[in-house]
Amino acid sequence: MSPTDPSPAKTQPPLLAVRGLRKSFGANRVLDSIDLTVDRGRVLALIGPSGSGKTTILRCLNGLELADGGTIDVAGELSIDFAQAPPKKRLSALRDRSAMVFQHYNLFPHKTVLENVIEGPVGVQKRPRADAVAEALALLDRVGLGDKRDSYPFELSGGQQQRVGIVRALALKPQLLLFDEPTSALDPELVGDVLRLIKELAREGWTMVIVTHELEFAREVAHEVAFVDGGVIVERGDPKQLLRHPQHERTKQFLHRLLFPF
Amino acid sequence: MTESTWQLVLDSFWPLLDGAIRGTIPLALSSFAIGLVLALGLALMRLSGRAWVSGIARGYISIVRGTPLLVQLFVIFYGLPSIGLVIDPWPSAVVAFSLNVGGYAAEVIRAAILSVPKGQWEAAYMIGMSHRRALGRIILPQAARVSVPPLSNTFISLVKDTSLASLILVTELFRQAQEIAAFSQEFMLLYLEAALLYWVICLVLSSGQGMLEKRLDRYVAH
């Protein structure tokens, strides 16, 4: 089952274009000239060893980390050059374009499921409460959590919490969905539900960047896979091609280690 | 105990209770409220990235915690008039206690804010919140739960420390006890009675703390 190809018009600018993105923490260079493009309705999976910088890429896209250099363009409408620190307004404009799903869910523990979902739409985006609630409930129903609207996060399983995390991201109506290892913190038997949901979203045409260790999932859901190591994109390409016939030695080693961990 | 001792206990009870209701309790409540606001400001200053801002807060907290409350009280009431600043007993006491609570509670609040996981800030930013909004809607409500037990300690200490205000002529529970004791020469009796009243007030506060914790625990796994 492969995602349907929405074939974006060739004249349209890519939804996301990243050029020469750099980031260092002190003397430690985590990203070294990252180039990425993601077209509308496409899914990019980032794979690579831990500490390779793939999560930092996502965090730069959402403005949680401030890149040291390079540019990020969204939909040809918003362009930020990080050569100088961008003003706060531009950074929050960048953040508004995307929504992130966190590895550890990061739900607000003092708010109910419904409150978690509508906090952004109502509290920040100032949309009418009744509309936001109706949309939130529809989304929660869709992921099978309609009856949990008044529960607190601690009352939910990890898989349920992560589905709320996804609903919270969707409710923001972003142009770009970012997933940071969305199933890494889940018990194995709960992974399936979350991956199935992400696959559905991909099929519906959401544009996504997914950091994941689930190679099989990446192969099924992504239109393109990029292997990140040492802060650079070592190679990128068609998932089936790249995962089965990697060109670079580092990619081969990484895939081998994942397939034969013992 | 003789009949006259009982009579004295009864006769002194109402003045002591009056001292508690019109002195000790409002003094503690108003000082705590003002002190908490001050403490929140100081805690945020301490967490500021600007060195001079956190430096000011650090210096303030160091002075407040490094000097006796009684000395602070005397500086304000007996010291300031010598530079032309005369403050009445009651406001002097409120100022001294508020400044003192501010210094102690600031560290409690700072620690509570730091105890909220970083991911909460990130999720708040992710949904588009500003720093201020994230603090108010996401971080402080969670920090509040953590800070209830230590802040209750601060409050209970404050209730007992208000007895120091008797030394700057504020009419409160302990001063009433002192006056009746001096008059009747029944020191043991009056001071034990005062102690008992303080204890009862603190018992009530402790149970209040328990109820508050229970209420704030509704979103925490048990």
TrEMBL record, chain A:
PANTHER family assigned to the protein according to its UniProt record, in alphabetical order: AMINO ACID IMPORT ATP-BINDING PROTEIN, L-CYSTINE IMPORT ATP-BINDING PROTEIN TCYN
Q: Which UniProt keywords apply?
A: ATP-binding, Cell membrane, Membrane, Nucleotide-binding, Transport
Report how it sits in the membrane.
Answer: Peripheral membrane protein
Lineage top rank: taxon? Bacteria
Q: Where in the cell is it found?
A: Cell membrane
Give the InterPro entries listed for this entry: AAA+_ATPase (IPR003593), ABC_ATPase_HisP-typ (IPR030679), ABC_transporter-like_ATP-bd (IPR003439), ABC_transporter-like_CS (IPR017871), MetN_ABC_transporter-like (IPR050086), P-loop_NTPase (IPR027417)
- Organism field: Cryobacterium psychrotolerans
Q: Which SMART domains match?
A: AAA (SM00382)
Q: Which GO terms describe its cellular component?
A: plasma membrane
Q: Which Gene3D superfamilies match?
A: P-loop containing nucleotide triphosphate hydrolases
Q: What is its main location?
A: membrane
State the SUPFAM superfamilies in the record: P-loop containing nucleoside triphosphate hydrolases
Q: Name one GO molecular function term.
A: ABC-type amino acid transporter activity
Task: Write down the PROSITE patterns for this protein, in alphabetical order.
Answer: ABC_TRANSPORTER_1, ABC_TRANSPORTER_2
**Identification of the protein by name:** Cystine transport system ATP-binding protein
TrEMBL record, chain B:
Keyword annotations from UniProtKB, A to Z? Amino-acid transport, Cell membrane, Membrane, Transmembrane, Transmembrane helix, Transport
Report the transmembrane regions from the record.
Answer: 20-45, 66-87, 188-208
What InterPro entries has UniProt attached to this entry? AA_ABC_transptr_permease_3TM (IPR010065), ArtM/GltK/GlnP/TcyL/YhdX-like (IPR043429), MetI-like (IPR000515), MetI-like_sf (IPR035906)
The superkingdom listed in its UniProt entry is: Bacteria
Would you tell me the Gene Ontology cellular component terms?
Answer: ATP-binding cassette (ABC) transporter complex
Task: Answer whether the UniProt record assigns the keyword Transmembrane helix to this protein.
Answer: yes
Task: State the compartments where it is located.
Answer: Cell membrane
Q: Give the membrane topology.
A: Multi-pass membrane protein
Q: Which PROSITE patterns match?
A: ABC_TM1
Q: In the record, what terms sit under GO molecular function?
A: L-cystine transmembrane transporter activity
Family the UniProt entry places it in: Belongs to the binding-protein-dependent transport system permease family.
The protein here is known as Amino acid ABC transporter membrane protein, PAAT family
Species, as recorded = Cryobacterium psychrotolerans
